[in-house]
């Protein structure tokens, strides 16, 4: 569905995407994971055929966006990072007008609007003005709008940024249903739990480069341990700052990461590791044992967290 080889994007002297290789298969959910500024959105704009590539090769649905841009855009859907809805129109009219842009007949677009309102659970809000919707409802409407033309590929740039947890889960459910219907999903996110929930396969991007690729489970198994013990120390006493403690517990874990507010010990058994920390006379103010996540993978690969 999407093939990129040596893909680059430059803005003057700044190279946002620095030569990446990507292949997205039909029917899969593919993710670009990374912090802000990693090059994800620049890549998505090239894939959406709205930003020309600077170098390399890019094919979307077998077509060259440099010459087949309109044909590509007619067959894909785009859900941008920022909602671009017409706030003065009703929910229904936002979808109706957008459907007419694609040349759908009045009868066809009315049927499609009803289908989409039901799909994103906004039927009861059909007559409401967009400005009266909650953030989660606006996001679902934006997704519905991107589906008006029955796209083969749906591009989603940070689909749940700014939403509360409940609204995020509603959006996740709608996207999962789309995948079940055979729509190919390509999404960017800096939420590691979102990438784990939604994607079959993903690439981790940092500073315009791909630093890892695989399924979420593969990446966690390859680059992290089964569990992580988090230690937080309060007012630092001598030898008990996070950096100071790291040397004293380094032999208790496969890897130790020092963050400004906590110490991460990567281990197969977090509870046992914390017990050994206490045996050494160390008294953290708070402890937590959790399973490893994609954030730990990113920290291992880049030396910084996803939210930086």
UniProtKB/TrEMBL annotation:
Residues 2-232 form the ABC transporter domain. Transmembrane segments: none annotated. It is a peripheral membrane protein. One of its GO terms (cellular component) is plasma membrane. GO terms for biological process: response to antibiotic. Gene3D superfamilies: P-loop containing nucleotide triphosphate hydrolases. PROSITE patterns: ABC_TRANSPORTER_1 (PS00211), ABC_TRANSPORTER_2 (PS50893). The keyword Nuclease does not apply. The keyword Zinc does not apply. Keywords: Antibiotic resistance, ATP-binding, Cell membrane, Hydrolase, Membrane, Nucleotide-binding, Translocase, Transport. Its main location: membrane. It is found in: Cell membrane. Its EC number is 3.6.3.-. GO terms for molecular function: ATP binding; ATP hydrolysis activity. Belongs to the ABC transporter superfamily. This is Daunorubicin/doxorubicin resistance ATP-binding protein DrrA.
């Amino acid at each position: 569905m999407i093939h990129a080889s040596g893909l680059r994007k430059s803005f003057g002297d700044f190279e946002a995407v620095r030569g990446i290789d990507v292949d997205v298969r039909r029917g899969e959910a593919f993710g670009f994971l990374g912090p802000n500024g990693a090059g994800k959105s620049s890549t998505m704009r090239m894939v959406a055929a709205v930003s020309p590539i600077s170098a390399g090769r890019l094919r979307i649905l077998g077509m060259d966006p440099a010459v087949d841009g309109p044909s590509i855009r007619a067959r894909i859907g785009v859900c941008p990072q920022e909602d671009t809805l017409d706030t003065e129109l009703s929910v229904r009219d936002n979808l109706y007008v957008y459907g007419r842009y694609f040349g759908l007949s009045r009868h066809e677009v009315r049927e499609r609007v009803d289908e989409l309102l039901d799909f994103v659970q906004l039927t009861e809000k059909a007559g409401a003005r967009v400005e009266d919707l909650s953030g989660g409802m606006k996001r679902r409407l934006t997704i519905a709008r991107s589906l008006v033309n029955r796209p083969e590929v749906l591009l989603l740039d940070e689909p749940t940024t700014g939403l509360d947890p409940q609204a995020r889960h509603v959006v996740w459910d709608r996207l999962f249903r789309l995948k079940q219907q055979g729509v190919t999903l390509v999404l960017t996110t800096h939420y590691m739990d979102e990438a784990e929930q939604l994607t079959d396969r993903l690439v981790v991007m940092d500073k315009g480069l791909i630093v890892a690729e695989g399924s979420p489970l593969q990446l966690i198994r390859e680059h992290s341990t089964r569990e992580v013990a988090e230690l937080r120390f309060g007012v630092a006493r001598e030898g008990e700052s996070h950096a100071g403690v790291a040397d004293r517990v380094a032999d208790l874990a496969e890897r130790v990461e020092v963050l400004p507010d906590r110490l991460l010990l990567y281990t197969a058994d977090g509870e046992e590791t914390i017990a050994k920390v206490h045996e050494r006379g160390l008294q953290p103010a708070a402890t937590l044992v959790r399973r490893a996540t994609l954030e730990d993978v990113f920290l291992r690969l880049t030396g910084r967290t996803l939210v930086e």
